[in-house]
Design goal:
heterodimer; A: about 210 residues; alpha+beta; 3-stranded antiparallel β-sheet; 6 helices; B: about 230 residues; mainly alpha; 10 helices
Chain lengths: ~210, ~230
């Protein structure tokens, strides 16, 4: 898996600050655990947080340091946790063959599955049959699309599994699934997506996009 | 509490870049780092932490589960984590509880620390941030993102890595300090007050694009400041 489409600097900075809306954060996290480049970039952004933390005027503590529990041996974390998938439904799903996903048809060759989410934004899986297009849309806020299976293309390039499309509010696009295998992706939106055109408007109530 | 409370660097005494020689030179570099701490006060005045000292404390916790080392780390970072959380809108008592929990997490996971996560400060910052997201935004902690290889314990970083990371962190601080005030403001609102870029735009009455470009510029200045190091 060669990842060529990465998270943007602004997204990584928000992620590092802990302020990325949670839908976007989930998709960003799923990409970051797969992407060495973005992991390294994220640490750079976190160094900014560390520098600010170090520069804060210390606030006196009311209590003494807590007694530390005796640790006969420091246990490494459970490896199953290290991939982050215990916390990340997208990754958990990405490691299935998507057979157990309760897809709902929302158009010709197009299915979706909203994922439950606390916090801000909307998160869903989209499955597109080979050659199917997601109607042209623009977003009022940020949108992150992570390819989980197959591939898709739009005006900004071709995206394969692991790639993330980090688009901001100004961009309008019409992603098309590859002819070979189609595409399964996770899409996070900061705010509901606006579709253009009549067909899209007809679809919107079912989309929940 | 040795080597705390003053801004210090480990920038002098170029360490042997050879990793094989690294472990042998450990003690030497520790000494040089102390000299460096003293010499480079010119570079970084003001309050702060000594990165080499903090990394050494982490190594002591990881290797020997050393309660004294934990106590020192707690005295240095506890008050800062507390004020970080207060800046994010947490009440003082809860902030203190979470500061304790942050440092106890360090105690439990010290063996998982690696220089890939940046300095000790970087790691502690991420733990505090994740606790804030988890407890106070009541969101699933999406950001629990240990590197895939973090299960391998590497409690003792090589001396050249420690020195380099300390220098990196000082340069990052210096780069932030040199940013124009309006850019610093944006970075502080994001990292300290916990505002999204949209919320910052609203707070400052700026277009979202301006906020994002300031964020980008801050990042670029930081990277430029460390270009010759890594």
């Amino acid at each position: 898996m060669t990842i060529t489409h990465h998270l943007g600097t602004e997204t990584l900075m928000s992620f590092a600050a802990g302020t990325l809306p949670s839908a976007l954060s989930a998709v960003a996290a799923a990409h970051i655990v797969m992407c060495r480049h973005c992991r390294d970039e994220l640490v750079w952004c976190e160094r900014i947080g560390a520098a600010l933390l170090d520069g804060l005027p210390p606030m006196p503590l009311d209590d003494a340091a807590p007694a530390v529990p005796a640790l006969p041996q420091i246990e490494p974390q459970n490896p199953a946790r290290l991939g982050g998938n215990a916390f990340n439904p997208i990754l958990r799903l990405a490691r299935t063959d998507f057979a157990d996903v309760a897809w709902r048809r929302i158009g010709i060759g197009l299915w979706h599955r909203p994922l439950p989410l606390q916090g801000q934004g909307a998160l869903q899986l989209i499955k597109a049959a080979p050659g199917a297009a997601v109607p042209e849309h623009s977003h009022g806020g940020g949108e992150l699309t992570l390819i989980l299976r197959g591939a898709m293309s739009d005006a900004t390039g071709r995206y394969v599994a692991g790639d993330v499309a980090d688009l901001d509010a100004e961009i309008e696009h019409t992603p098309v699934a590859d002819l070979g295998a189609g595409c399964v992706c996770a899409i996070a939106n900061e705010v509901p997506t606006r579709f253009r055109g009549l067909l899209a408007r007809l679809l919107q109530p079912w989309h929940g996009l | 509490m040795p080597a705390m409370g003053e801004g210090k660097a480990t920038s002098v005494g170029e360490p042997d870049p050879s990793r094989t020689a690294g472990r042998i030179l450990w003690a030497t570099v520790q000494g040089l780092a102390m000299v460096g701490d003293w010499v480079s006060l010119r570079a970084r005045p003001g309050p702060g932490v000594s990165y080499s000292a903090m990394t050494e404390l982490l190594a002591r916790i990881a290797q020997r589960t050393d309660p004294a080392a934990f106590h020192e780390l707690y005295q240095s970072y506890g008050p800062r984590v507390k004020v970080y959380l207060v800046r994010r809108g947490v009440d003082a008592a809860t902030a203190e509880d979470l500061a304790q929990e942050t440092l106890l997490t360090v105690w439990r996971r010290a063996a998982l620390f690696s220089s890939e996560k940046g300095s000790a400060s970087t790691w502690i910052f991420t733990i505090a941030r994740n606790l804030w997201i988890d407890r106070l935004r009541k969101e699933v902690p999406w950001q629990e993102l240990p590197a895939a290889h973090a299960a391998q314990t590497s409690p003792e970083p090589l001396p050249d890595e420690v020195v380099a990371e300390g220098e990196v962190q000082l340069r990052v601080r210096a780069a932030l300090a040199e940013l124009p005030a309006e850019q610093q403001r944006v970075i502080e609102l994001a990292y300290l007050e916990g505002l999204s870029h949209g919320e910052i735009a609203a707070r400052l009455g700026l277009p979202l694009g301006t906020v994002k470009s300031r964020v980008r510029i801050a990042y670029q200045r930081m990277r430029a400041a460390v270009e010759d190091l890594k």
